[in-house]
């Protein structure tokens, strides 16, 4: 499948891939702005902006935005991460013009009506309360705060009750005007539509957006110090999160760490941690490890819940499994199997065209190119057991892990 990329004079780029054997088109705007780009007093503003994009533009009220695609069986959505804000839609191919025009409208023409700000403020406060009631979710963000202490990467994407409680209309306009960079903005399209048809609808409006470069520069993360923290919570089992900074999006070892993480505690049932803690001992219902690269650093973490009486034993088993990968090379059969599993998972992920559309946009922002899946497969296939051993000795070093424990009241 051929990939098309076009850069407009203002720096906005359009990426497109035609997929003829689907009835759908997936499209969206990906902006290189996230929660880490907020000042301390702006904590939660990027996420609030994501909500407010649906609450009114110069020509539409909330109902008209929500109903525009939903009434056609389409989906309109958005999300905020630490480094990106995305507005996207999935529709039958005949409705692409409506989807593209609506996405353009909410991305660039939001008016942030004051009455809607007050309503949505309450919605977000409820979202925060719901999140606090879910310790499995909150422990992951609390670990971020521990690992990236005193840095924007450690702040909660939702913000705080104090910051969310005081945002006003001008705050949104000011944030966007100081953070929006048209060279860091992608419109991505994947689905049953030609490049010419995709451009015909969106290129004209996008060309009219003035070229804009921001003077803002992200603050890098330095001076990590491992920490240990125990918190009493209203939980029925002990929850354990451990983690540390890891490789960035630009580190050549990132795919190797992805492979190593998959072996240790990836989503498959045959991960080392799942086999040990769940299958062999029955100490956990689920356990997972994760690796998330950012533009200048990364994050590696492990999460599980267990009865209070088996917490220490479970932690020891996790350490033992990491130490195995630090002290002994994988055998050739083990390594081959791990590579095939990771490659298979990536290949299946590519079948999700909505996700692929977003991946293309993020890749173009982060790397100024889109690597083919074959080139990524090649990097995984050429990874050696010696390289994985070296990465395990680095990332899995027990003295470099921070720990956060939730214990029952």
Helix count? Answer: 15
What's the shape?
A: globular
Radius of gyration: 22 Å
Helix-strand pattern: EEEHHEEHHHHHEHEEHHEEHHHHHE
Helix proportion range: 40-55%
- Which structural class do the helices and strands define? alpha+beta
Beta-strand fraction estimate = 15-25%
Strands in their spatial order, largest beta sheet: 1-2-6-3-5-4
Note poorly predicted spans. Answer: none
Distance between the termini: 55 Å
Largest sheet: 6 strands, mixed
Tell me the number of strands.
Answer: 11
- Quote the average pLDDT: 96
Domain Peptidase M16 N-terminal: 14-160
Domain Peptidase M16 C-terminal: 167-341
Family: Belongs to the peptidase M16 family.
Protein name: M16 family metallopeptidase
Give a short synopsis of this structure.
The protein is built from 15 helices and 11 strands. By secondary structure, it is an alpha+beta fold. The model has no long low-confidence stretch (mean pLDDT 96).
Kindly describe this structure:
This protein is an alpha+beta fold. The protein has 15 helices and eleven strands. It has helices at 45-52, 62-70, 96-108, 114-132, 135-147, 161-164, 169-179, 195-207, 254-265, 272-280, 311-327, 332-350, 353-367, 373-381, 385-395, and strands at 3-7, 13-18, 24-31, 75-80, 85-92, 185-191, 228-233, 238-246, 287-293, 298-306, 402-408. The strands form two sheets. The protein has a six-stranded mixed β-sheet, with helices on both faces. The protein has a five-stranded mixed β-sheet with strand order 7-11-8-10-9, with helices on both faces. Strand 4 and strand 5 (85-92) form a beta hairpin. Helix 10 (272-280) packs antiparallel against helix 11. It is globular and about 60 Å long. The mean pLDDT is 96.
